C-alpha cells in the first residue's frame, strides 16, 4: 500500500549527489527533499517492489524505482533517494547504495546518483505479527549539477509511504486488493469448519428429532 506525501514550506539547500548523510537525515525524514525544491511534484512516482507479506528474521531484496520528472542530461546525474523502515534492518548490497554510520536509513551515493532505480536488502524483525512502514523520498533530477540554484533547478521530488504486513499480522488487503495466500487458507478452513458444524447439527435435529440444545449436549 503506498500513500504519496504532500509537503511544503521547507528550507532550501544545495543538492546532495552523495546522498543524505547523518547531518541531513532528520531534516529529510521530516520535510522531504527540500534541497531540490520547496514542494513535492505529484508527477514523480515512487514504487517499491516487495513481497506480499514477510516472515520474521527473513531477508528480502527490495527495489525502489522513480518514474516521471525531468529528462536527464546526457552523462548527467539522474536521481537519488532516502528510505527508512519502522522495523527491521536495511542494508546495502552494491556500490550504488550506502548507510551512514550510526543511522538506520539507506540513501544513494555518488555512483548511485546516476540511476533512478536502486536495490537493497531488508531483514525482517523478530516478530511477523506487526505491520512495517517504509517511508521514502526520491529525486528525479536533470543532471545540471553546475547550473543555477546549486544544481537543483528543474529537479523534481516526491515522497511515499509503503506498508508491509507480517505473515501473522491482522488480516489486511494487499496492494492488489486481494488477501494473501495464508490469509485465504485461514478463511477457507474457518468457512469449512462452520459449514460442517451447521450440517452435522442440522442433520441430527432432523433425523433424531432433537432440539438444538440436545444436539449440543451430545458433543460436549
Automatic annotation (TrEMBL):
InterPro entries: Reeler_sf (IPR042307)
Residue spans crossing the bilayer: 185-202
Keyword DNA-binding: no
Gene3D superfamilies the UniProt entry points to: Reeler domain
Keywords: Membrane, Transmembrane, Transmembrane helix
Keyword flag Zinc: no
Protein name: Reelin domain-containing protein
